[in-house]
Write the structure tokens for this entry.
Amino acid sequence: MTTRLLLLIAGGPAALLASIAVAVTIGPADISTSDVWAAVSAHLGLGESTLPPLRDGIVWNLRMPRTLLAAVCGAGLALCGAVMQSLLRNPLADPFVLGVSSGASTGAVAVVVLGVGGGAVSLSAGAFTGALLSFGLVLMLSHSLGGSTDRVVLSGVAAMQLFSALTSFTVLTSADADTTRAVLFWLLGSLTGAGWSDVLLCAVVLAGVLLVCLGHARTLDAFAFGEEAAAALGVRVARTRLVLLCATALLTATLVSSAGAIGFVGLVLPHATRALTGSGHARLLPVTALAGAIFLVWVDTAARTVIDPQEVPVGVVTSLIGVPAFVAVLYRGRRKT
Amino acid sequence: MTGSLPTDPADVADPVDPADTVDAPPGLRADRVSRRADGRLIVDGITLTLRPGETLGLLGPNGSGKSTLLRLLAGILAPSAGVVTLDGRPLPSVGRRATARRIATVEQHAHTQTELTVREVVALGRIPHRRAWSSSTATDTRAVDAALEHTGLTDRAGQSWHTLSGGERQRAQIARALAQEPYELLLDEPTNHLDIQHQLDLLDLVVGLPIATVIALHDLNLAAMYCDRLLVLREGHVVAEGTPGQVLTPSLIEQVYGVQADVTHDPGHPVIRFLRRTPKP
């Protein structure tokens, strides 16, 4: 167990770095790892760039931010999923269980299709606002229903249905074919057009939320036997629940506004990681974040290359992999009851 | 409710002053605590003192307020009126974590979907002793080892909690509670769903612990055999308090449970024999 843990601690970040370095070289334009190194070191001020500007641009402006955003999104979604599953004591919870993604979709659609904000508001800003509105609604609803975790889940489901319906209604009644295509692509989750500003924003929020969650790692362990058992172990349950719900909702909203609702990473990766690390959150949370990052880097690489030059929304690929894994989770759950 | 025997007169006459912690008796006390839910009083003005090292049995029919009283004593629920004090300090001012280092609870039916080993379940008891970011110390490991040994689960430590039998799961919960290194242990019908052998094993284990214990029980004979003192509840009130011999009389059993019983006195404790409502055909 301890050697495996050491392997994870040393090997995880190394595997992530290697994955990013290799993933950046893959694509229509022929780029080698030494090209990647040259471009990155030049931009970090470690030497003169020896690359032609076009190739440098492909590495630094296109593939690098996209790959890094994939890593950040994968890490963030897996982290949020792990926290939600433990906090809500629901093995099928994921980062979108609070209706954040549906709210984000409605916000994005309102901006793109209906022109809310008159062009001054970006799709991301609209999505972020929608996400927070939806989360606020879920919090209010669950609080007025008594605040227990099953009420939180039910409120999330209600919000998800409501906002999905609003999104569909808006798209079907108001959008032309091109807008519908663009919106659909975004709804399915896509890292196309990722820029450095997206990467920086998401990375900063991820770092903050990761720290909050790691600080609550022991507290999350205490939830294994339910909220009352957690309270008996000295946990301030209501406060902990609020802090963690808000932190994960903030991170999810940020990620969704940059990359759309990439499904199943947050549901499946935490389960896969638990098999490696056990259920202790001090290990589970960092390892699941790493695993999510590596996973999404490779899935996105596949999404943008497999049927080249066409691109598949990354959310479609994660779901294709995620659904069988989801079924496996259901089977495991059946054994325990 | 009438007919409530007064508790220790000193307890009734002596309202707790939160500032008065110097002369306060050590231990866990409830002073006229009530808990209202949906407009109904579940616990109605109960006063009790848990003496160091004693085993106090809580008796009463379903819905008499036993579970709620235990939650109030553990500080998991806040009383609507009255105060629960630990060494003279009200629980809210003691703080959740500090309370959990003193008082451990074992719920009636613990369940989890999380995949945990027995050792991991027991180690949950160390959470109130650990700060965020800290890793487990030698003290934690010793406490967990001792708790496993005390409950006879050392051999099972590496096994998944889900593979344990009902009796073993209850023992694992008690081990978790012991890992908290409590001075007060509260158990809510810990023998439910156990066969008679495991009921006796479990109660032997509990009463052998050198800490004060409150244990809610359904079985009057087990209560008579294992408890030093009994508190009988009905509709949120205390209707009787005292040693098993004082409390478990045919008239009280009829009053509280509405059944007829013969009580004989074995050396040490009363033995209750329930009578059929209709004669045997």
User: Anything to note?
Assistant: Residues 65-336 of chain A form a domain with the ABC transporter involved in vitamin B12 uptake, BtuC fold (CATH 1.10.3470.10). The two ends of chain A are 28 Å apart (CA to CA). Residues 221 and 280 of chain A are 6 Å apart (CA to CA). The longest helix of chain A spans residues 53-87.
